[in-house]
């Protein structure tokens, strides 16, 4: 009997506690832990009863673990701002990508419409290349001299911009990490 009254009392207290007005959080999903019983938005996190300390939020960052970038020879109107060279030292990955986009100048001779070339390389802390860019992909069926023409254009474009001016934080974060760039020659022939 006492057990039934105690459970009923718990339900009443829980219903009354939930009836109080909640303060609206001006920043959505900000520091709201997730619960199976909640019906409101929350910040997903990783927690373990075996680890002391606070939970670690699982945040989807706009850039993946790999530093990958696509550079088009003729950017679309909506992407033109991404191809503007930053007027300050490079402090973010977005600044680095904008700098690399602004450096690209496709080959004037030996160009091929729809050509795609991917290279991979790394920077050192001083903003120079650790080694020459390595060709990892080229459009299938393209002659070797066309691939060589594009690789020379990529090397010339990168060397014209080097050394990049990194801030101390970005230099430490990028040094030695591979960067993969896919160059897409989307120019229309004859224009």
Task: Give a short synopsis of this structure.
The protein has 191 residues and is of the alpha+beta class. The chain has helices at residues 2-18, 93-103, 144-161, 168-174, and strands spanning 45-46, 56-57, 67-72, 116-122, 134-138, 178-184.
List the helices and strands and how they pair.
Elements: H1 2-18, E1 45-46, E2 56-57, E3 67-72, H2 93-103, E4 116-122, E5 134-138, H3 144-161, H4 168-174, E6 178-184
Parallel strand pairs: 3-6
Antiparallel strand pairs: 1-2, 4-5, 4-6
Structure overview:
With about 190 residues, the protein is of the alpha+beta class. About 30% of the residues lie in helices and about 15% in strands. The chain contains 4 helices and 6 strands. It has helices spanning about 1-20, 95-105, 145-160, 170-175; strands at about 45, 55, 65-70, 115-120, 135-140, 180-185. It has a 4-stranded mixed β-sheet with strand order 3-6-4-5, with helices on one face. The longest helix has 18 residues, at about 145-160. It is elongated, with a radius of gyration of 26 Å.
């Amino acid at each position: 009997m006492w057990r039934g009254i105690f459970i009923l009392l718990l339900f009443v207290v829980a219903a009354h506690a939930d009836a109080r007005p909640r303060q609206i959080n001006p920043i959505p999903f900000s520091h709201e832990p997730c619960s199976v019983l909640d019906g409101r938005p929350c910040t997903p996190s990783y927690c373990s009863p075996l680890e002391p300390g606070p939970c670690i939020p699982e945040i989807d960052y706009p850039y993946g673990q790999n530093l990958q970038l696509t550079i088009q020879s003729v950017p679309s109107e909506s992407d033109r701002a991404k191809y503007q060279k930053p007027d300050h030292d490079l402090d973010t990955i977005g600044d680095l990508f904008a700098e690399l986009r602004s450096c690209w100048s496709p080959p004037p001779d030996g160009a091929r419409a729809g050509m795609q070339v991917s290279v991979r390389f790394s920077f050192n802390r001083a903003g120079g290349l650790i080694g020459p860019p390595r060709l990892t992909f080229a459009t299938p069926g393209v002659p070797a001299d066309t691939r060589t023409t594009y690789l020379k254009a990529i090397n010339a474009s990168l060397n014209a911009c080097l050394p990049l001016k990194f801030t101390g934080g970005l230099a430490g974060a990028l040094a030695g990490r591979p960067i993969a760039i896919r160059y897409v020659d989307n120019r229309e022939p004859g224009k």
